[in-house]
Write a sequence for this structure.
């Protein structure tokens, strides 16, 4: 299936007439604007016949499901992998900046926290804001490619206390473990008998200083809950963080995804409604999608969930227009590595932007296979990775790569099988489309 834009760049209905597409490209009646998904733009006037296309979005913290369909046929299906390293990178940047300011002579500089973004109403943390904006970006991408008439979202409301304790109800929500305690640290020390959980030394008998340790780090999704903290003496705590002692405590379940969904659902709905107005068809919920999926025997995937969200269950599925998109970071702005080398030298974190004509994560072909260039060495030995970041092969000579597209923030790969190559150049691009 080939996606088509009119002369002004507005989306038209896609076509499966690959012979007509090849003719239009050969005779200058169309040009290629995108390789994957394969999209052309007409260079002449055309009819404006459109059908009602509905876009279903399976909202998620790590994965996004997309499906665009008419009542008769599925036109587009994709799964989007989101970035999950934003919080960790921001934490590292904050530590580096605090250390630099502590070593500098600007310690007397007045505090400027009052003008920060988190004081504004409706503020989302950067990691959650990026996930919400990724949904908006995915919706815009589909709407630029297909004439979407309706957009429907599946959102979820999660009760973290109910997940941890299914029997909780009524006033028990206000009568948790910390109900009569000043803070979490005081409760954790009392719960552990004012003893170190690692060496058993006591505050009253041995006179050790007690500290509270997070089993799962907050940067890894840990929370300030009693089941995620233990009491340690200052010696054991320091030895653990320096890697001299390992602690064996069961890690509590992670509920970071549920918290992210609760935080961004209202923002996401408001943004979609503000951008598309009447085309926003409202929201649905996971249990409704699950019922429709079970009734029709559909396998549980994010793209299949989006197909059920659309509501056109009788539409013909299209196995040849399924895609996997993955958001990635384009550049690393860190100048030096954090680990100190011998002689007090820090290794540069900035590699050459262009090595033998290739940039990091340039889309290329090697041995007839779509891949992305990852590690680039000055001796001409490159590493090829798949769209999910897994290694295909390392140590490939750079001359064996055929560069297709410059690096971007989204990697796209078709998940279907047979692809027919249209060997017609248009604007220095070679199109690829399906023969089905």
């Amino acid at each position: 299936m080939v996606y088509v834009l009119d002369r002004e760049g507005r989306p038209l209905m896609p076509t499966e007439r690959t012979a007509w597409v090849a003719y239009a490209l050969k005779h200058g009646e169309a040009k290629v604007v995108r390789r994957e998904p394969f999209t052309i733009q007409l260079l002449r006037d055309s009819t404006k016949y459109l059908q009602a296309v509905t876009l279903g979005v399976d909202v998620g913290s790590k994965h996004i499901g997309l499906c665009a369909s008419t009542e008769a046929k599925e036109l587009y299906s994709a799964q989007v992998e989101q970035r999950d390293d934003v919080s960790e990178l921001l934490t590292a940047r904050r530590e580096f900046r605090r250390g630099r300011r502590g070593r500098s002579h600007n310690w007397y500089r007045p505090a400027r926290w009052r003008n920060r973004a988190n004081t504004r109403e409706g503020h989302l943390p950067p990691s959650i804001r990026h996930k919400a904006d990724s949904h908006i970006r995915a919706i815009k991408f589909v709407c630029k490619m297909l004439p979407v008439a309706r957009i429907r979202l599946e959102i979820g409301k999660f009760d973290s206390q109910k997940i941890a304790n299914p029997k909780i109800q009524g006033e028990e929500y206000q009568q948790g473990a910390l109900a009569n305690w000043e803070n979490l640290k005081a409760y954790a020390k009392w719960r552990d008998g004012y003893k170190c959980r690692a060496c058993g030394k006591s505050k009253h008998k041995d006179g050790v200083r007690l500290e509270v340790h997070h089993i799962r780090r907050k940067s890894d999704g840990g929370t300030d809950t009693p089941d995620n903290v233990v009491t340690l003496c200052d010696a054991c705590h320091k030895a653990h963080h320096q890697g001299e002692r390992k602690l064996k405590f069961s890690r509590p379940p992670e509920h970071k995804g549920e918290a992210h969904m609760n935080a961004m659902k209202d923002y996401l709905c408001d943004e979609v409604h503000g951008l598309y107005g009447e085309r926003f068809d409202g929201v649905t919920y996971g249990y409704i999608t699950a019922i429709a999926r079970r009734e029709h025997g559909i396998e549980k995937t994010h793209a299949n969930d989006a197909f059920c969200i659309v509501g056109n269950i009788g539409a013909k599925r299209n196995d040849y227009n399924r895609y996997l998109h993955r958001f990635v970071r384009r550049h690393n702005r860190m100048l030096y590595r954090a680990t100190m080398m011998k002689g007090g030298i820090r290794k540069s974190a900035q590699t050459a932007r262009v090595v033998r004509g290739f940039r990091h994560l340039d889309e290329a072909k090697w041995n007839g296979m779509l891949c992305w260039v990852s590690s680039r060495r000055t001796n001409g030995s490159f590493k090829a990775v798949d769209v999910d970041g897994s290694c295909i092969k390392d140590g490939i000579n750079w001359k064996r790569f055929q560069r297709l597209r410059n690096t971007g923030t989204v990697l796209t790969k078709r998940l279907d099988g047979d692809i027919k190559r249209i060997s017609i150049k248009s604007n220095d691009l070679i199109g690829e489309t399906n023969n089905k």
Residues 256-276 form the longest helix (21 residues). The chain has three domains: 3-84+125-160+257-327, 178-254, 350-408. The CA atoms of residues 353 and 359 lie 6 Å apart. Confidence is low (pLDDT under 50) at residues 417-436.
